[in-house]
Automatic annotation (TrEMBL):
The keyword Plastid does not apply. It is an enzyme of class 2 (transferase). Keywords: ATP-binding, Cell inner membrane, Cell membrane, Kinase, Membrane, Nucleotide-binding, Transferase, Transmembrane, Transmembrane helix, Ubiquinone biosynthesis. This is Probable protein kinase UbiB. ATP binds at residues 129-137, 152. Pathway: Cofactor biosynthesis; ubiquinone biosynthesis [regulation]. InterPro entries: ABC1_dom, Kinase-like_dom_sf, UbiB, UbiB_bact, UbiB_kinase. It comes from Rosenbergiella nectarea. Is probably a protein kinase regulator of UbiI activity which is involved in aerobic coenzyme Q (ubiquinone) biosynthesis. The keyword Transferase applies. It is a multi-pass membrane protein. GO terms for biological process: regulation of ubiquinone biosynthetic process; ubiquinone biosynthetic process. Its EC number is 2.7.-.-. GO terms for molecular function: ATP binding; protein kinase activity.
Length: 545
């Protein structure tokens, strides 16, 4: 380790101990050196004994800065790894990071643009509008069209900090399997790799811009969701220019009510937006926490969402979408046998899984949930219980499903905050049933024909040649197979002959020995049998080469 890394490591340890996070070290024999090291070397006392462990963990991560805040946010989606009192606190992590100097932001913008800010923008505000762990935004007016825009700028010199902290996080992750009883099942290295990829992707604002353009196109002309326009000509990996939006933050429920927003319709449309992104578009905003969602001021009786910060998106392939939709429907119909079969058919669990045992486990975990009215059942927790049960049957972690679960929990929490009486199942079930019907019925067949028709028309003139080539290849293949069969048959016959000759040689040798012992006077016979043995072995050996 370098001196800088050691200093950073000491700072992290000091923060952890100040918040008493050494309580998380398990009292096992393998963890004993760590506990002794803590008491013998570090005498830093816990200054927050009056706070719960989950709250202390959240406060420590916030103080450690961007990398650790993002790590806590990512870990909050893995509720299979932590008890609720910790997972809930991690889920509430916010990017409470002080802004960096506006002059540095301006210099970075000018470096990306290749010229002064005043050449491209009017009224550039050197004071940031908002600041987060990875970037901050400034307001301006775009000269070419006089549109109000925001300029998102990556924090300068953040990459070396991220890399240094990631090296430390990898070291911590490598220790966990040795000190935690269940450390290997948690697969900490894989969790950290997923986190690192997400973090590095967020540093590339060109990727975020492309995601926003795709999402905007998917909902163009739709009154459910509005995505601000991206001005790609001014973008780079470290800077993004986008339309400035003026909406009501989704977390300001009282303001929404005072503006006359139809709260029930708004909550239901949040569910529709989610399922439309997942099942219609296979492209969903995977970071829809309250800080990234606004509501338009216009048309309170016909409310529209506004989404920003598209740095993290998810997608599902066709099979995942179908299996997921059928899982939801089977689950809420309490058809646990179908749920178990779908998991096996999808490849989410190994093909040799005992379906009866799997079905029984799902029923044991999920039946108590249905003691509640459907309106009180959490979609996100249904998915969580389902995946946790499947993991006991060696279900591999599906990254796309983890993102989906996280997004669903966000959407569900927002929906119930807006309209506590929201029945997510009543809202989602017709959508899912209609989607499945559309995927397997005549409309799906007609779409396939319509999609494939141009390719078929293009290949039609080649059909005779393709048929000829197929027949020719079939003939060549048959000839090759016949030749291989003959070779195998000849080899088999040779092996039989070799075994016979070696056996005859052994018999001749034994007979020669017996004659020598019983009738020493018959040396000629003994010599002949010995010669026969040698000849048999030589001939057999030559047949093997």
């Amino acid at each position: 380790m370098t001196f800088g890394e050691l200093r950073r490591l000491y700072f992290i340890i000091r923060i952890f101990l100040t918040y008493g996070l050494d309580e998380l070290i398990p009292r096992t024999r393998l963890a004993l050196p760590l506990r002794l090291w803590r008491k013998g070397v570090f005498w830093i006392p816990n200054r927050h004994q009056d706070k719960a462990i989950g709250l202390r963990l959240r406060l420590a991560l916030e103080q450690l800065g961007p990398v650790w805040i993002k790590l806590g946010q990512m870990l909050s989606t893995r509720r299979d790894l932590f008890p609720p009192e910790i997972a809930d606190q991690l889920a509430s992590l916010q990017d409470r990071v002080p802004p960096f100097d506006g002059a540095r932001a301006k210099a970075q913008i000018e470096k990306s643009l290749g010229g002064p800010v005043e050449t491209y923008f009017d009224d550039f505000d050197i004071n940031p509008l908002a600041s987060a762990s990875i970037a901050q935004v400034h307001t301006a007016i775009l000269k070419e069209n006089q549109k109000h825009v925001v300029i998102k700028v990556i924090r300068p010199d953040i990459l070396p900090v991220i890399k240094a902290d990631m090296r430390l996080i990898y070291r911590l992750a490598s220790w966990l399997p040795r000190i935690l009883p269940d450390g290997r099942r948690l697969r900490p290295i894989e969790v950290v790799k997923d986190y690192e990829k997400t973090l590095i992707d967020e540093l590339n604002l060109l990727r975020e811009g492309a995601n926003a353009i795709q999402l905007r196109r998917n909902f163009e002309g739709n009154n459910l969701l509005y995505v601000p326009e991206i001005y790609s000509d001014y973008g780079s990996e470290t800077m993004l220019v986008m339309e400035r939006i003026y909406g009501i933050p989704i977390s300001e429920t009282q303001t929404l009510v005072e503006r006359g927003i139809n709260m029930q319709l708004l909550a239901e449309r949040g569910v529709q937006v989610f399922f439309t992104q997942v099942f219609r578009d296979s492209f969903f905003h995977a970071d829809m926490h309250p800080g990234n969602i606004f509501v338009s001021h216009d048309h309170p009786d016909d409310p529209q969402y506004i989404a920003i910060d598209c740095g993290i998106v998810g997608s599902l392939n066709k099979n995942d979408k179908r299996y997921l939709a059928e899982n939801f429907i089977a689950f809420f119909n309490r058809d646990y046998r179908r749920v178990a079969e779908l998991h096996v058919d999808s490849g989410w669990v190994p093909p040799d899984t005992n379906v009866e045992d799997f079905e029984f486990s799902i029923r044991t975990v999920c039946e108590p949930i249905f003691e509640k009215p459907l309106a009180e059942i959490s979609f996100g927790h249904v998915l969580l219980n389902l995946f946790n049960t499947a993991r006991r049957f060696n279900m591999e972690v599906q990254p796309q499903l983890v993102l989906l679960q996280k997004t669903l929990l966000y959407i569900e929490g927002i929906g119930r905050q807006l309209y506590p009486q929201l029945d997510l199942w009543k809202t989602a079930k017709p959508f899912l049933e209609e989607w499945i019907k559309d995927q397997v019925g005549l409309p799906a067949l007609w779409r396939t024909v319509k999609t494939k028709a141009p390719m078929w028309a293009e290949r039609l003139p080649e059909l005779p040649e393709l048929v000829f080539d197929t027949l020719h290849h079939h003939k060549l293949l048959k000839h090759s197979v016949d030749k291989l069969a003959d070779q195998l048959n000849q080899q088999h016959n040779r092996h039989i002959q070799v075994r016979y000759l070696w056996g005859m040689g052994a018999i001749c040798l034994l007979s020669s020995t017996a004659v020598m012992l019983v009738h020493p006077e018959l040396k000629w016979m003994s010599g002949g049998l010995l010669a026969g043995a040698l000849i048999s072995w030589i001939v057999g050996w030559r047949k093997t080469t």
